[in-house]
Fold this protein.
Amino acid sequence: MVELSAAGPGGVRVAYERSGNGPPILLLHGWPKTRRMWRQVVPVLARRFTVITADLRGYDDSEPASDPDAYDKRSMSEDMIHLMDELGLGHRFLVIGHDRGARVTRRMASDHPDRLVGGALLDVMPMEWVFNQGRDGYARRYYHWYFFLQHGLAEEVVGASPRAFAMQQFIGAHVPLDPADVEHYVAAFSRPHSITTTLGDYRTAYHVDRPRWEAELAEGTRIHVPLLLLWGSEGNLADAPVLEQWRACADNVRGQPVPGSAHYIPEEQPERVIQAVQHFADELRF
């Protein structure tokens, strides 16, 4: 059953569901998804862990920020720290993040290394690396990152055709997504505040998160929390130097491509995600 947290330091209440018993795991979704993307993973993980699936601020049932620019990943990560503290699970927990949720996970690992036992990042490269790839088709692969930066135009175009825009993302799945789930994601994305959230999320990634990471890396700041990287063998990262780039900013990195999957790994290959998370937890003795 979905519940709402108390308002955190950013004044936002976060929607979440809780399952199982055991060491705590927080699952964070990507774009344009919701916590529903973990539905095939949760029942198995809940046999061993206390599993929390949460909507990022402004997504699905979580409240949007009052400030359209308050979607930097530090603010979003503080929502999740507050949630886990409220649930009494915030001392040491494992975070599994996909896409945008992985970017929040990275920020949590950097800002709160004492809280996280580990973090799994699904199908992402460091955002500052992606923004700096002006060759090899990266602008084409991630065209929406740049389109969302166009103030006024992006609001008009996405607001006029939210279904078409969302569906354009889903056609890239190597394993077709369930039509009922796609309809849920389209309906959630089509709400006016969801579009505002999306634009705020991507715009702050460029204007706030990217320069923040670049400054921290220039100062020698590194992530010490153990990281697991999973990426789709059939997706945008099939030819990307995933482990090399993450090892440039983190000390303890392992990972592998997921066969038979493009971007939406928890839905395209849920069994492989479950196996990888279980193995990672074993490695961490968690």
In short: Residues 3-283 form a domain with the Rossmann fold fold (CATH 3.40.50.1820). The chain has a mean pLDDT of 95.
